[in-house]
Amino acid sequence: MIDYIVLVLIMAFSTMIARLIGGGARMAGGTAEKVGVVLALVVAVFDLAVMAGLTGRSIGKWTTGLRIERMSGGPPGIPRALLRHFVGYPLSLLPFGLGFLMVTVSPTGRALHDLIAGTIVVRRDATVMVQPKRTQGN
After folding, report:
1. For residues 75, 48, 39 and 34, what is the CA-based torsion angle, rounded to 10 degrees?
2. I need a labelling partner for 4 at 20 to 30 A (CA). Which of 39, 61, 87, 109 fits?
């Protein structure tokens, strides 16, 4: 949620600047809004894909002491972070947010976007404790 608050603040600030500049200069106000949209997109990709992919922490995860890891451990990588945030999150939202509510019934505490990307969210100092699959012979 913190990540999205940062993005909304960027948009709100650029809109406020556009309205202050706006008056009779529609061009200047429109440009300020466009700059805000572009800046929000750049921050979103950097925060949710690059930072989360390389370190496992977005701004929100960093402030709350959480990190994203692959199920096997380690940072997810940029492609997996892109998949998680830009494909998995919208799919988690679609059916009335049920993809997010899966956390409450999942034995591993993973939401739909985590299942799609093969990730798990852990506390900063925790390690992933996934039980190996048992074969019939065990």
Report:
1. 150
2. 109
Instruction: Work out how many domains the chain is built from and give that number.
Output: 1
Contacts of 104 by beta carbon, 8 Å cutoff, 6+ apart:
none
Mean pLDDT (10-residue bins), the chain, 138 residues: 90 84 58 84 92 92 92 91 93 89 89 93 66 57
User: Which of 121, 3, 129, 1 has the alpha carbon at shortest distance from 67?
Assistant: 121
State the pairing for strand pair 119-123/66-70.
Answer: antiparallel
Within a domain: residue 136? no
Residue 90 lies in a domain: yes
Smallest CA-to-CA distance from 113 within 93, 135, 137 is with 93
Question: How does DSSP assign 12-43, residue by residue?
Answer: HHHHHHHHHHHTT-HHHHHHHHHHHHHHHHHH
Q: Is residue 20 part of a domain?
A: yes
Tokens of 96: 């009335």
Domain of residue 53, residue span: 2-123
